[in-house]
Structure formats: C-alpha cells, structure tokens
Write a structure and sequence with these properties.
Blueprint: E1 40-43, E2 71-76, H1 90-108, E3 115-122, E4 134-140, H2 145-161, H3 165-175, E5 181-184, E6 188-191, E7 202-206, H4 220-237, E8 243-248, E9 262-266, H5 280-285, H6 294-303
Antiparallel strand pairs: 1-2, 2-4, 3-4, 3-8, 5-6, 6-7, 7-9, 8-9
The structure holds zinc ion (3 copies).
Length: 305
C-alpha cells in the first residue's frame, strides 16, 4: 500500500534481553570477542538481512515478496562493558568513528546493496538486548522510505533553487534570533530543528556540503565529539540515556550531488521521566505532534553541561 518494504524477521523472536548475571558476548572474555581489540565489527548473530539468501532484483512496481538479502553488522564500540560514548576519551571516539567509516566503505560497493544505514540504539525501551556499547549497520537492498523522502525534497530544491536543502537550513539556523543551536564547532553544528518531530530530537550537520563519511575522513574526531556532546547533555537531563542515533548518508547507488550527510538523534523522552508515545495521529496517519517548543528545548540542552 505504501510502496515500502517490510523486513519480516520472525526467526529472531527469541532474542533475549540480557540480564547482568549472564556473560556478555561483547566483553573480551567471551568466545565471540576473544582477541585483542579496541573496536570490533562482528556479523549480527540475529540478522534481519542475510547475504546467503541470494539477491534478486527488487521491482517496486509490483506487490512482491523477496528473500531478505543484505548484511547486518554489529560494531562493538569499546572492550569495556560500561564505556559508553559519553565517557570515552578522544582516542576511543576517533577509533569508533574510523570504524564507522571503514565498515561503510566495505559495504558501500557490495553487489545488490543500495543503502548503508549505520545507527545506534540505546536504552531498554528502544528494545536494546545488550548493554555493552554497540552500534549496528544494515546494508539494505533498497533505499529506505525516510531517505527517499529526504532525497526527493533535496533534489527538488537543488533543481528549482540551485541550493542544497541542508545548507539552506543551516544558513537559516545560524542567522535566526531565537537560537535553536546547541553547539557550533569549526566544521559542525548541532541544533534542535524547528521541524523536530520528537521533543528532544537533535540534528548534527557538517558545515561543508559532503555526501558521506568518506569526505570528512580527517574530521572524524570532531564529529564524534559533537555526538558525545549531545549524549552528555542527554545524560544530564533524562533519568536514563535512551536514544536512536541515525547516520543519514547518500545512497550507495546513483549520483546524488544534492545529498548532504548528517546525523539525527531521537530520544524517546518528552521530559526527564515521561516517555513520548507514538499514538493515533503519529501511528495512524504519520503526522507528528510535538507539544514542546524547539527553542526552549535547545536552551535546556545548551545549559545542561
Ligand atoms: Zn560486555
Ligand atoms: Zn549542502
Ligand atoms: Zn535526515
């Protein structure tokens, strides 16, 4: 009905939430992670997508089912079980973001792959089954709908106004009087967009017009510290640090000069201890209602340090 793919993962129903009494599979003492490492990329043990099922070209004009072709990786962000990004030193942050780049480059050229989605889920209510710091990578055989929508909007502006949508948004944010900016560095800006769908949604944009991590390979530490800064602020405000962090990179197929790489963070909170639930309007018809004021949230985040 929507022209969108659904990944059916019924075989993964028995993934357990880890209780702290069992041995963590990402700690260096376990057999899965038993070599010397600082950041480690593994195949996901419960993959939603699998390269072994074989790739068939997807035709989105027809109603169809297809084998769930693709790759699912886990990036273990630290050998230390409780070293989340907010407590990492610069060296470890740099290693983590270099790994994001390495895994992206490795999967970007795989046959039949159209989009590399790197993301992090934090917190039990987000459904995280393991507390050990880790991120995930999905190499998808199609471009996901949210990205398609952003591509469409970016392309429209590029062709009509000869402007990049994100460069424009950034220009607007930098000159607006009631600031929604959280932090500015030499090459990046973090802020609460006026179009935020969730109260504490934060976007991080590079000032330069770049399509992927490849073009910012010498500024990965600065980008990582920008993410760390946002998460540290979240940790001051919320009872639990919970969020989804999404890298929005250019697709792996086609030429998209209008794409501007960025990171989006979505915490599930509406304030310190109450959750924002997606209810009738959001779930039923896809309209988000945000009952907070982006300028106030930006101010709260700026002061939370
Ligand atoms: Zn662990
Ligand atoms: Zn741009
Ligand atoms: Zn985006």
């Amino acid at each position: 009905m929507l022209g969108e793919w659904v990944i059916v993962t019924s075989g993964r129903g028995d993934v357990q939430i880890q209780d702290d009494s069992t041995l963590c599979p990402f700690c260096p003492e376990s057999k899965d992670a038993s070599c010397e490492w600082q950041v480690l990329t593994l195949d996901n043990k419960f993959p939603s997508l699998d390269p072994r099922v074989g790739m068939i070209p997807l035709d989105e004009n027809y109603v169809m089912e297809a084998p769930a072709y693709g790759f699912c990786k886990v990036i273990v962000l630290s050998p230390k079980h409780d070293e989340q990004i907010e407590v990492m030193d610069d060296k470890q942050i740099e290693r983590v973001f270099e790994e994001y780049l390495t895994v992206f480059k490795e999967l970007d050229s795989k046959r039949g792959i159209e989009y590399i989605y790197e993301f992090e889920n934090r917190g039990e209510s987000i459904g995280v089954s393991l507390n050990h710091p880790h991120a995930q990578v999905y190499a998808l055989p199609f471009i996901p709908p949210r990205i398609k929508q952003e591509l469409k909007q970016s392309q429209r502006m590029w062709e009509k106004e000869e402007e990049c949508l994100i460069c424009q948004i950034l220009k607007n944010e930098l000159k607006t009087l009631t600031s929604r900016i959280i932090l500015e560095t030499d090459h990046f800006v973090s802020f609460v967009p006026h179009f935020a769908r969730l109260p504490y949604e934060v976007h991080i944009y590079p000032r330069e017009h770049v399509g992927s991590l490849i073009e910012i390979n010498d500024r990965l530490l600065e980008l990582g510290k920008m993410v760390q800064d946002v998460v540290q602020r979240y940790s001051k405000i919320f009872d639990e640090v919970e969020y989804v962090m999404a890298f929005h990179t250019r697709p792996s197929v086609g030429n998209h000069p209008y794409w501007h790489f960025h990171i989006e963070l979505y915490p599930p909170w509406r304030d310190r201890s109450r959750k924002k639930y997606l209810a009738g309007v959001e779930t039923g018809v896809g309209v988000f209602t945000n009952d907070s004021c982006p300028e106030d949230i930006a101010k709260e985040l700026r002061e939370a340090i």
